[in-house]
Amino acid sequence: MHRNLPVLRELSIKPGLDQIVDAIESVIGTDTALPRQVKLYFCHRCSGKKLREIGGRFGISDSGVSQSSRRISDRLESDRTLRSKIRRTGKNLNLSNV
Length: 98
Fold this sequence. Notes:
Layout: H1 5-11, H2 17-27, H3 33-46, H4 51-58, H5 62-76, H6 80-92
Protein backbone atom coordinates (compact mmCIF):
# COMPACT_ATOMS: atom_id res chain seq x y z
CA MET A 1 0.00 0.00 0.00
CA HIS A 2 1.27 3.42 -0.89
CA ARG A 3 1.85 5.48 2.21
CA ASN A 4 -0.02 8.53 0.87
CA LEU A 5 -3.33 6.71 0.42
CA PRO A 6 -4.67 7.65 3.87
CA VAL A 7 -4.12 11.28 2.94
CA LEU A 8 -6.13 10.79 -0.25
CA ARG A 9 -9.02 9.39 1.78
CA GLU A 10 -8.98 12.51 3.95
CA LEU A 11 -9.17 14.71 0.85
CA SER A 12 -12.48 13.23 -0.28
CA ILE A 13 -15.24 15.66 0.47
CA LYS A 14 -17.94 14.18 2.67
CA PRO A 15 -21.13 15.95 3.62
CA GLY A 16 -21.41 17.28 7.14
CA LEU A 17 -24.15 16.24 9.53
CA ASP A 18 -26.06 19.51 9.07
CA GLN A 19 -25.83 19.24 5.29
CA ILE A 20 -27.22 15.68 5.45
CA VAL A 21 -30.07 16.71 7.75
CA ASP A 22 -31.06 19.60 5.47
CA ALA A 23 -30.97 17.45 2.33
CA ILE A 24 -33.14 14.74 3.88
CA GLU A 25 -35.66 17.21 5.23
CA SER A 26 -36.02 18.76 1.77
CA VAL A 27 -36.75 15.36 0.16
CA ILE A 28 -38.52 13.37 2.89
CA GLY A 29 -39.80 16.03 5.29
CA THR A 30 -39.87 16.02 9.07
CA ASP A 31 -43.32 14.78 10.06
CA THR A 32 -42.67 11.09 10.82
CA ALA A 33 -40.03 8.85 12.37
CA LEU A 34 -38.80 7.92 8.89
CA PRO A 35 -36.81 11.13 8.26
CA ARG A 36 -34.91 10.65 11.52
CA GLN A 37 -34.03 7.07 10.61
CA VAL A 38 -32.92 8.13 7.14
CA LYS A 39 -30.80 10.92 8.65
CA LEU A 40 -29.10 8.36 10.86
CA TYR A 41 -28.60 6.06 7.86
CA PHE A 42 -26.98 8.80 5.77
CA CYS A 43 -24.89 10.15 8.63
CA HIS A 44 -23.62 6.63 9.37
CA ARG A 45 -22.98 5.67 5.75
CA CYS A 46 -21.80 8.93 4.21
CA SER A 47 -20.47 11.47 6.69
CA GLY A 48 -17.32 9.70 7.83
CA LYS A 49 -18.17 10.68 11.41
CA LYS A 50 -17.83 8.30 14.34
CA LEU A 51 -20.92 6.58 15.71
CA ARG A 52 -20.45 8.43 18.99
CA GLU A 53 -20.52 11.82 17.25
CA ILE A 54 -23.60 10.91 15.21
CA GLY A 55 -25.35 9.49 18.27
CA GLY A 56 -24.55 12.64 20.23
CA ARG A 57 -26.12 14.78 17.51
CA PHE A 58 -29.33 12.76 17.65
CA GLY A 59 -29.36 11.93 21.35
CA ILE A 60 -28.93 8.16 21.00
CA SER A 61 -26.22 5.58 21.67
CA ASP A 62 -23.59 4.31 19.24
CA SER A 63 -25.48 1.04 18.82
CA GLY A 64 -28.72 2.97 18.27
CA VAL A 65 -27.14 4.68 15.27
CA SER A 66 -25.93 1.36 13.90
CA GLN A 67 -29.26 -0.39 14.45
CA SER A 68 -31.29 2.40 12.88
CA SER A 69 -28.97 2.47 9.87
CA ARG A 70 -29.31 -1.30 9.47
CA ARG A 71 -33.12 -1.11 9.65
CA ILE A 72 -33.24 1.43 6.82
CA SER A 73 -30.76 -0.63 4.81
CA ASP A 74 -32.99 -3.69 5.24
CA ARG A 75 -36.10 -1.70 4.35
CA LEU A 76 -34.50 -0.44 1.13
CA GLU A 77 -34.60 -3.97 -0.27
CA SER A 78 -38.41 -4.01 -0.39
CA ASP A 79 -39.51 -0.35 -0.41
CA ARG A 80 -39.15 1.17 -3.88
CA THR A 81 -40.51 4.55 -2.82
CA LEU A 82 -37.93 4.84 -0.06
CA ARG A 83 -35.18 3.72 -2.47
CA SER A 84 -36.19 6.51 -4.83
CA LYS A 85 -36.10 9.10 -2.03
CA ILE A 86 -32.69 7.83 -0.88
CA ARG A 87 -31.31 8.14 -4.42
CA ARG A 88 -32.71 11.65 -4.78
CA THR A 89 -31.21 12.66 -1.45
CA GLY A 90 -27.86 11.15 -2.49
CA LYS A 91 -27.91 13.20 -5.68
CA ASN A 92 -28.70 16.35 -3.68
CA LEU A 93 -25.63 15.62 -1.56
CA ASN A 94 -23.50 14.85 -4.65
CA LEU A 95 -22.95 11.27 -3.50
CA SER A 96 -22.41 8.80 -6.29
CA ASN A 97 -23.14 5.52 -4.55
CA VAL A 98 -25.87 5.54 -1.90
